[in-house]
From TrEMBL:
CDD domains: AP-2_Mu2_Cterm, AP2_Mu_N. It is found in: Cell membrane; Membrane, Coated pit. Pfam families: Adap_comp_sub (PF00928), Clat_adaptor_s (PF01217). Belongs to the adaptor complexes medium subunit family. Residues 169-426 form the MHD domain. It comes from Papiliotrema laurentii (Cryptococcus laurentii). Keywords: Cell membrane, Coated pit, Endocytosis, Membrane, Protein transport, Transport. This is Intracellular protein transport-related protein.
Length: 427
């Protein structure tokens, strides 16, 4: 797949060069330096010159470049480049010119293990750290023992996990984290609503446990172009991505996720939902301009989730006209403050209970201008985090751990829905 790999500095000097195939020569690096590094007009991360393609990413002050002569998968090449960045950071914290010069021997070792004849091999950080180490030299006996483990690790079915992991207390933590994206019109109709979700897991389990993870009974994986009737209470997921440890065959049959987890923290699943979204907050806005020098706001916020739950750090950013001179505001819950530098009223509510309602009223005084431009009225942005609530409706039905020693494990599941400036309401 990859014929050569290079690391350049900003001046175009080659810091690392590794040729995996004979179809390119080291002098190909001069082409990249002239055509990309010295050319300020280059914007694309892929440059094809004749039959040679250069895939590059820039991290800090270095360029990572993969060269290929064949019709390689672009997604796979970039996945390798960014995986190399993660591995480098795991070994020496920061990937820049200085760290590359200080660790060039280690980088060549890593490349020899990650790539074989241009094809990516094992790139699991935990596995690599077993036999590529920056520690002191081990005894010959210890090296032999590790060698036998390495052979099983590199060639076995679970390259992401060692078999000799031991914990005094066996625990598994599951976090379902969702980011809610909303764009609502001033009339209150939803223009766009979707959820970006991920299931994170921290597995502190001994041995090689078999985990079985069950989601909602009414779970639908909507395929592109599918026009099947939808149930109102069904949870529909699009674009599911799983960690390599998941056995996809069992998920297709009974929607259960079966896997042998890596040791420690990892992302088990990433998904997206675009239908049947439970919006955690509703906003009613009434903004008028009675005179040319005044704007009146009435913003009514209602928490639409269960009264037993609470939202934390609720923040509303309410835009004001550019020629605003002063704002007087009044709120029943939280604090509201006008920030002239950002032309917004920031309303902060540290804690808000489900089904609670609160209102902000404000008057904005405007400066008189000779050429008055119409106010564009950017949307109101709402930020929040609601624990034990999922906007998609996704729920974990069960989490079972099976291990041949038969130990008992403790399982914890937590839900979190949040917004990062992506929950917007027009007014």
């Amino acid at each position: 797949m990859i014929s050569a790999f290079f690391i350049f500095n900003q001046k175009g000097e080659v810091l690392i060069s590794r040729l995996f195939r004979t179809d390119v020569k080291r002098s190909i690096s001069d082409v990249f330096r002239i055509q990309v590094i010295s050319n300020a007009d280059v914007r694309s991360p892929i440059i094809t010159l004749g039959s040679t393609s250069f895939f590059h990413v820039r991290i800090n002050n270095v360029y990572l470049v993969a060269v290929t002569k064949c019709n390689a998968s672009a997604a796979l090449v970039f996945e390798f480049l960014y995986r190399f960045v993660q591995i480098s950071r795991a070994y020496f914290s920061k990937l820049d010119e200085e760290s590359v010069k200080n660790n060039f021997v280690l980088i060549y070792e890593l490349l020899d293990e990650i790539i074989d004849f241009g094809f990516p091999q094992n790139s699991e950080i935990d596995t690599l750290k077993m036999y590529i180490t920056t520690e002191s030299i081990k005894s010959e006996m210890a090296v032999r023992e590790d060698s036998s483990k390495i052979t099983i690790q590199a060639t076995g079915a679970t390259s992401w996990r060692r078999s000799d992991v031991k914990y005094r207390k066996n625990e598994a933590f599951v976090d379902v984290i969702e980011t809610v994206n909303l764009l609502m019109s001033k009339e209150g109709s939803v223009l766009r609503a979707d959820v970006d979700g991920q299931i994170l897991m921290r597995a502190y389990l001994s041995g090689t446990p078999e985990c079985k993870f069950g989601l909602n009974d009414k779970l639908v994986l909507q395929k592109r172009g599918e026009t099947a009737p939808r149930s109102e209470d069904a949870v529909e997921l699009d674009d599911c991505q799983f960690h390599q440890c998941v056995r996809l065959g069992k998920f297709d049959t009974d929607r259960s996720i079966s896997f042998i987890p890596p040791d420690g923290e990892f992302e088990l699943m990433r998904y997206r939902s675009t239908s049947n979204i439970n919006l955690p907050f509703r906003l009613q806005t009434h903004v008028t301009e009675p005179t040319k020098n005044r704007v009146e706001y009435t913003i009514h916020l209602r928490a639409a989730f269960d009264p037993k739950l609470n939202a934390n750090n609720v923040v509303l950013r309410i835009p004001t006209p550019l020629n605003t001179t002063n704002v007087s505001s009044k709120v029943g819950v939280g604090k509201a403050k006008y920030v002239p530098a950002e032309n917004v009223i920031i309303w902060k509510i540290p804690r808000m209970q489900g089904a609670q309602e609160c209102t902000l009223t404000a008057d904005a005084e405007l400066a008189t201008t000779t050429h008055r431009q119409p106010w564009s009225r950017p949307p109101i942005e709402v930020d929040f985090s609601v624990v034990m609530f999922t906007a998609s409706g996704l729920l974990v039905r069960f989490l079972k751990v099976f291990e041949k020693s038969g130990y008992q494990s403790v399982k914890w599941v937590r839900y979190l829905s949040k917004a990062n400036g992506s929950y917007q309401i027009r007014f």
